[in-house]
Amino acid sequence: MKSDLKLVNVTKRYGETVAVKSINHHFRSGSYACLLGPSGCGKSTTLRMIAGHESVSDGSIVLDGRDVSYLPPAKRGTAMMFQSYALFPHLSVADNVSFSLKMKGVDATKRRTRAMEMLELVDMAKLGDRLPAQLSGGQQQRVALARALITEPQVLLLDEPLSALDPFLRIRMRAELKKLQRETGITFIHVTHGQDEALALADEIVVMNNAVIEQAGPAREIFDAPRTAFVAKFIGAHNVIALPEGKVALRSDAIQLTDAQAAQLSGRITAIEYQGTHVALTAMVAGEQEVTVLLTDKEFFGAPKETGEAIGLAWDARSAHTLSA
Amino acid sequence: MTAETDTPTASSAAPAARAGRRLPAAMVAWFQAAPLALVLGAFLVLPIIMIVIVSFWGATEYSIYPAFQFDNYEFLFSSPVTYKVFFNTFKYALITWAATLLIGFTVAYFLAFHVRSLTWQIALFLLCTIPFWTSNIIRMISWIPFLGRNGIANSTLISWGVIDEPLEWLLFSDFSVILAFVHLYTLFMVVPIFNTMMRIDRSLIEASYDAGATGWQTLWHVIVPLTKPGIMIGTIFVITLVMGDFITVRFMSGSQSANVGRLISNDIGLLQYPSAAATAVVLLVTVLLVIGILLRFVDIRKEL
Ligand SMILES: Nc1ncnc2c1ncn2[C@@H]1O[C@H](COP(=O)(O)OP(=O)(O)OP(=O)(O)O)[C@@H](O)[C@H]1O
Ligand SMILES: [Mg+2]
């Protein structure tokens, strides 16, 4: 099933405010994409425009070669899974799942069979007769997934699907999401503001900030080679350092400690934080900049340091990425 | 065995001693419930018991006397007037209910789902309540010059050429009675329905559209079921108000139609208290039965 999704100059304005500013992106068919960004950057708005729950102010949304910008939600080939799951409280789990079939006028026995198939897929077949209020958060989420998938969408849109779950369940559910995506081959577009979630799940990460896409690419590319200071900071585990040759992003685990003479930068340790497998040193270097160095516990305890000690920092030139902004 | 049973007894002695100085939990609950129970007992339960007692009394043309006889009920159930009047009461209740539900649901739906800003919602909602700043009677009577034979409605229709003769059924008819009821009681439908609608999660509606439902399908399969508790509360308000009313029927029908309330008020006017009490008891039981049946359909507890 081909289901390439292209955003062409998609813009959303609410009066004066621009929530999404002329973004272009190509979501490849069958990939797991994460829209990542801080609160208010326009992720949900983008997703809702793709779903058809928000009109586009400008530009177009092209799914599988077809401009769907002005089609109603159900005619687009997309399905949305809502953040709070939005299960119908008055309908049983099975009726929730088969709601779209009922709207199409499919007869009751066929609806039931299809609903049970979908519930089987998310491992919820046993609870088909319960009401949503009688389910746990994780179970509700599976039902919401089944309800979205029963429409056989080409693209599944998920708005912060894991944020209502506790941390333990979140990690389990994200593994299941990934598995489900692989099995169904449907394009998933998943909105999140957690970089760990994006890194764990996504084939492709689209980092948004201030209504625009800052950088898009495979997860490893985003993490290894952030192009802007914003991306480097947001994705975490990076230092953004202003050097004479310009701003660079430097992974904190790519920095070694050396003696002051051989160092590219020197400074003084201001904090030491033990993190179990790693130890994070924070040093103040020239120009009042803070740099974090992540050492493995073996490295650190092999040559322990004290707060206030002078240290030199060195790194391989290839790990420093010059930033464009 | 003994050692095991001894220990809990010894340790439970201390809390028991402490509790002795305070009131037992059950007593506290009784005291907390007492004020409301007393008020309801004195002003609701006692009068009803009185009415039930009096309904078995006897009456002559000029006096009433304590007794325990079923004459009042026998007379009530054997008189064709009773059935006619009860039928009328149900007719008013049913038609008024249907009209207030239709109008109330539409108004509430508009307020809840089409008015976007909260300020406007509050403003329009207050607008709905403005008529209630005057008394029921004034609002009712103000219909009379409007609907009368030479009233505004008739003269306007004649001047537009819609009709040649004044419409007789506009005033002092079932039409005017029901019109007044609808006017008086629609707000009692709007408020609870609006209240439930405001609690419906908006993403449910988007989820419905996402599943391919049309606007009407969403209304029927999502909004109406979720609004049922509000509809039920409004229904109970309207039904009880209409079934207990007598003044609206008297004014708006020009004393030409009767409902149970008027039957009771006539009896009271003739000082036939036992007969009025018996009718009141039958009306009360009827209304309670209706509410009982309604409550079987919808669980309103989660609304309260
Ligand atoms: N209905 C609306 N009217 C006016 N402004 C809106 C509306 N919806 C969103 N916005 C604005 O658009 C911008 C983007 O909102 P959006 O919901 O897409 O953010 P988000 O990236 O999903 O944030 P979060 O992570 O907090 O959910 C925000 O500045 C928001 O205030
Ligand atoms: Mg959002």
TrEMBL record, chain A:
It comes from the Bacteria. GO terms for biological process: quaternary ammonium group transport. GO terms for molecular function: ATP binding; ATP hydrolysis activity; transmembrane transporter activity. SUPFAM superfamilies: MOP-like, P-loop containing nucleoside triphosphate hydrolases. PROSITE patterns: ABC_TRANSPORTER_1, ABC_TRANSPORTER_2. Coiled coil: none annotated. Residues 5-235 form the ABC transporter domain. Keywords: ATP-binding, Nucleotide-binding, Transport. Pfam families: ABC_tran, TOBE_2. InterPro entries: AAA+_ATPase, ABC_SmlMolc_Importer, ABC_transporter-like_ATP-bd, ABC_transporter-like_CS, Mo/tungstate-bd_C_term_dom, P-loop_NTPase, Transp-assoc_OB_typ2. One of its GO terms (cellular component) is ATP-binding cassette (ABC) transporter complex. This is ABC spermidine/putrescine transporter, ATPase subunit. It comes from Salipiger bermudensis (strain DSM 26914 / JCM 13377 / KCTC 12554 / HTCC2601).
UniProtKB/TrEMBL annotation, chain B:
Belongs to the binding-protein-dependent transport system permease family. CysTW subfamily. SUPFAM superfamilies: MetI-like. GO terms for cellular component: plasma membrane. The keyword Cell membrane applies. InterPro entries: MetI-like, MetI-like_sf. It is a multi-pass membrane protein. This is ABC spermidine/putrescine transporter, inner membrane subunit. It is found in: Cell membrane. Residues 86-294 form the ABC transmembrane type-1 domain.
